[in-house]
Amino acid sequence: MSPDHLSLPSKIFLYAVILFWSCASDPNERPESPGSSDQDITEFINTFEGRGDLTDDSQPTPAPEALELFQHPSDLDIDLILAEPEIFQPVEIKFDHQGRLWVVQYSQYPAPEGLRVTNVDNHLRTQYDKVPDPPPGGMKGADKITFFEDTDHDGLFDRATDAITGLNIATSVLPGRGKIWVLNPPYLLAYPDPDGDGIPDGDPEICLKGFGLEDTHAVANSLTWGPDGWIYGAQGSTCTADISSRATQHVQFEGQAIWRFHPITEVFEIFAEGGGNTFDIEIDAKGRLYSGHNGAERGQYYKQGGYYTKNWGKHGPHTNPYSYGFIPNMELDGDRKRFTHAWIKYEGATLPSKYQDKMLAINPLHSYLQLTRFEPYGSTFRNIDEEKILETPDTWFRPVDIKAGPDGNVYLADWYDSRLSHVDPRDTWHKKSGRVYRLRNTNWSPGAPLDMSTWSDRQLIDSLSSPNKWIRQHVQQILADRQDSRYLTLLYPLIEGDEGQAALEALWAIYSCKGFNESLSLEALQHADPYVRMWAIRLLGDSDRLTPEQSRSLAELARSENHPEVRSQLAATAKRIKAEDALPIIQGLLLQREDAADPDIPHQIWWALEAKMQIDPAVVNTVFKSAAYWKTPMAQEKILSNAGQRLISTALPEDYSALIDLLALAPGVKEAKPLVTGILDGLRGRSLNSLPTAMYQALKPFSEVMGEGKLTASIRAGDTTSMGEALEIIKNPEAGLQDRLAYTKIFAEINYPQAVSVLLDMVDHQNTPLSLKHAAIRTLRNYPDEEIGERISNAYPDRLRADPDMRLAALSLLMTRPAWTTKLLNMVTGTRQIHKEDIPSYMVMELSLSDHPQIRDRIHTIWPEVQSMEENAKSQQYEDILALLDQTPGDANSGRNIYENKCSTCHRLGDLGKNIGPDLTSYDRKNNKDLLYNIIFPNADIREGYVNFIVNTKNDRTFVGTLHNDQGNIIQLRTADGETITLSKSEIAEMEALDRSLMPEGLLTGLTQKEIINLFTFLKEEP
Known about the structure:
Blueprint: E1 5-7, H1 11-24, H2 39-47, H3 63-69, E2 76-83, E3 90-95, E4 101-105, E5 117-120, E6 126-128, E7 143-149, E8 159-167, E9 172-176, E10 179-184, E11 187-192, E12 205-211, E13 221-225, E14 231-235, E15 240-244, E16 251-254, E17 257-261, E18 268-273, E19 282-283, E20 289-292, E21 299-302, H4 312-315, E22 331-333, E23 342-345, E24 359-363, E25 368-377, E26 380-391, E27 399-404, E28 410-414, E29 435-441, H5 457-462, H6 469-482, H7 488-497, H8 501-512, H9 518-525, H10 530-541, H11 548-560, H12 564-576, H13 579-590, H14 601-613, H15 619-623, H16 627-630, H17 633-649, H18 653-665, H19 669-682, H20 693-699, H21 712-716, H22 720-731, H23 737-746, H24 755-764, H25 770-780, H26 786-800, H27 804-814, H28 818-829, H29 841-847, H30 853-862, H31 871-884, H32 892-902, H33 928-936, E30 948-953, E31 958-967, E32 970-975, E33 980-984, E34 988-993, H34 1009-1020
Parallel strand pairs: 22-26
Antiparallel strand pairs: 1-8, 2-29, 3-4, 4-7, 5-6, 7-8, 9-10, 10-11, 11-12, 12-15, 13-14, 14-17, 15-16, 17-18, 19-20, 20-21, 23-24, 24-25, 25-26, 27-28, 28-29, 30-31, 30-34, 31-32, 32-33
Helix pairs in contact: 6-8, 7-8, 8-10, 9-10, 9-11, 10-12, 11-13, 12-13, 12-14, 13-14, 14-17, 17-18, 17-19, 18-20, 22-23, 23-25, 24-25, 24-26, 25-27, 26-27, 26-28, 28-30, 31-33, 32-34
């Protein structure tokens, strides 16, 4: 195949062509939608109400003029490198070691060519009629991969070569190992390129298959060489995966993850899972792996084998139902405007020193570049915003990728479109635009383009000490390509005689050149540089087996290591290696007392132990054979409770046996308390009398630390005498309040009908402590007696309404069963003993979701505002109010009063309001357009974490809340009033994600124009 070299025209002519292409698309052209033979699907797609930043009437600014609009610090300057028609819709940029700039042009987005839609959900996740054939077969798409060269050394790219065309949803390219690797979901392809000219010499090899296509803004992406020689990649949040290679079959996961593939062994594995809509990978000088986030924070520091936060309801659970927790995103102190999905840690040494070692994060939604610093926080980091270093009033500026270049400058891929939102199935994308910019030091001037393929061996090795990370990383790639042992004699002195970056670079290079033997690994584990130690541990974790000396050294290091990131990697490696090598590491890490407060390490130690328990649950007893391990903060605060929950929840004989032995090892009742607490958590929805006799007998001695009173064990075992005694304690005002509360809560899990009358008496009695009344009402929701609804509703007007907590608890109870809800509504419209205004808007919305038509009809009659407004009415209201808000600002103090009445029930702003809905403090409240849109169209964009689920149980209860946890045999719902409802999955009859927000439509209806202006004036003020 011969290269198609294009001599680009002069800049004057080019800008004229750019302007033509920018304005060429017909705004009246009918937008295309994905094809479907199903009439219902076609209608759904064509009538879908798009949301977010969609195509508007604004026009593109020609590239030279757009360049002049950028604002940046005086020590930086910006150059236009590429623009339409040279490139369209650039989704990824990347330099190779010959100095060529590769651009993936994602013109086929959003719909694959040649596929028919067979199903689509409310998140626009799409199913197709078939799996597309890989190239060169199958339908030809519009995507292509082009590389650009600077032949005249002026810092601009004057030659373009289309390397691969006709791709169909291609997101990433990666040259290396004599191949051009292309991510074209569902495939990872490897095109042969042994001569390195950038032109494939044959058809591609299919290396991986099975990446999902459900959402083309979340498909697999971001191919990146790791310092260990693996290819790393990402997958976004709303796709599934079932990955196979020649070496690995059917690795399945849902949603966001970092994965990796070994180009020689062809092993595929999940590196870490969870995060945001993961569409970026950044590897820093120490080999840490990060990604950005489509939420408010900057992103994640991904650690090997880690489980990270995700939207469980929308994106699915972790692959391990017993992960029992997750690593959070890095904490952010700064501007929380969504979103910075991609960023680099600048380590190029060309920009002024104030940018060195800091994050440069792109925000395509708000069209700017953020500078953020890293602050150590245990084994991870906090992020501290400093300043915006690139801004423009041109809202078409949509930076979607950012990379450091071989020159140490920063390059930005600009999608350039008025539209950014994927939440519209119609293909209204501009298609005829795309730009690449270079952000540089004002003192920089271009030199000869880099071509590292011509460097001598000595040049390569010496460049491992370059201050430019890009240079060092590409030296590593060249050495990994060659895998030549002749380099080892040059590399060994670097690791032996240097304590800084060069030693770490030498370790990676030695590993690539097959020189990482036992002797070197043992030396590296004792190296003065903590990151050499960290990576020696990680590389050993990738080996097939450890020698006895390597195993002993790792165990000793777990006890003595003083660097938290090294200890974090010890935990990650312990998860991967055999139990006989891992357990001494786990024991050593348990003794590191300060790590109990670390954001990551306690989770990692649990995951390491749980991985061994999957094979043999009795290994937990090996870890805790000595009392010293029971008494560590880590064991008391995390590990023992997780172990108890894990072993009891499976109901497997071998797990019961391990748990019985573990209880017998407890050095005392006090030390066993977290273990027992975990057991009780794992028993949600089951009683102790369902346990084998031996298991029950093993638990009995620990009843006093169950946190539920001394009668707990016998009550859970079904002893009615103990249940009666517990009711007497509940009734006794002289008994301890903690015992009364504990037994009241137990009867929420143990079905004992005799408890109903006692608990109702507690609610009725004037002298009952409020906390006990509250607990009694919560417990009574679990019983079906008609008397409950009658007595709670009768008590409401005079005995419950006055206290806000009692009021909400009573209303929440009356909403859980249809008969009680009917009683509630009768008291609103008939006797009027319950005021309509008592019921918060979110509860009204929950009631409107009832499965019972009679209840829904009555809700719509009493609260007509909960009914959906006609779309044209909402659109007209939006336009009218948007025009109104351009007028003179109003009175913020008056607006605050409106906020308190209309919004604070659900939303927090500063210190005002509740956290039922998203916290508005960090939102861009000065943007009238977006803020008003979200108020008038509350169902258009329900943020991650705020999707509500309606759960109907088998005993006719109904709960509505966000999915807080979905692991093992339980789920946890977080209700709007802040309660966490734990349900066994065996209790659930039906569970459904809601496509409606609990925020009602028509919130602004009834307000005067002045009141609306006042409200928005208040919202714009800093809290």
